[in-house]
Amino acid sequence: MPRPPAHAPDHFIAMVGEIVGNEWSPPSVPNWPVNFTRTAADRALTVYPDRKNSRIVFTMAAVTAPDWRCHAKYTPDLAGHDDIDSWLADGDLDAVADALGVVVRRLIDQPLPEPVTPHPGPVGRELEQLAKHAQELARLTAQFAAGLIRAEPVADAASRITRLAQLAEQSATRVDELRGPATARTAGRL
Predict the structure, then answer these.
(1) Please, which of 51, 76, 158, 178 could form a disulfide with 123 given CB 3.0 to 4.6 Å?
(2) Are the C-beta atoms of 178 and 123 separated by less than 8 Å?
(3) Cβ atoms within 10 Å, residue 58
(4) Which residues, including other chains, have CB under 8 Å from residue 86's CB and lie 6 or more apart?
(5) pLDDT at 118
(6) Which residues partner with 35 through β-bridges?
(7) What's residue 23's pLDDT?
(8) What is the model's pLDDT at position 115?
(9) Span 40-68, mean pLDDT?
(10) Helix 121-149 and helix 155-179: axis angle, to 10°?
C-alpha cells in the first residue's frame, strides 16, 4: 500500500514563494513535490527533498513540454537534525534564505534547453539507432560489471553485450556508408 505524500512545510513554501515572486502561482496542495507555475511564461518550478543525498532539488521546466528542463540542487548543513525532512520542518530556514534565493533565481533565469529535433533522412535515422545502441551498451556494460563485482553469473549479460555490439557495428557501418568517403568530409581540416 503506497504511503501518503508527506506535507511540505508551510514556511519553506512561503520562503520559495517570496523568492520567485507574485508572478508565480504557489502550489494548491502543500505536498512533495511542491510545484510553482508561471503560466504566462510557460514555466513550472518543482521542488522536492532528495532524501537519499540530503539535499533539495529544484527543477525548472516548460509547462507545455516538461521534458525540457534544468536542475539545481542545494545541500544544507543538517547539523542538529536527523535528516532533510527534520531540517525542512524545524531548521532555521531564514538563515539560508539568501543562498536558496541565489540558487532559485539562477535556475529561473537560465534558458531551458532546446528540444532535440530528430535528424531528417536516412543518416539521421541511423544515427538515432546508433545512439540507442550506445546507450543500451553502456547500461548493459554497467550491469555486467556490477555482476562481476557481486560474483553473479555474467555469461548471459556478456552474450547480450556481444549481440548489441554487433548491431552497433552494423549501424555504424551503415552511417559511414551513407555519409560517403571520409576524405571528402575532412578535406581542408588538419
Answers:
(1) 178
(2) yes
(3) 22
(4) none
(5) 58
(6) 46
(7) 93
(8) 62
(9) 89
(10) 160
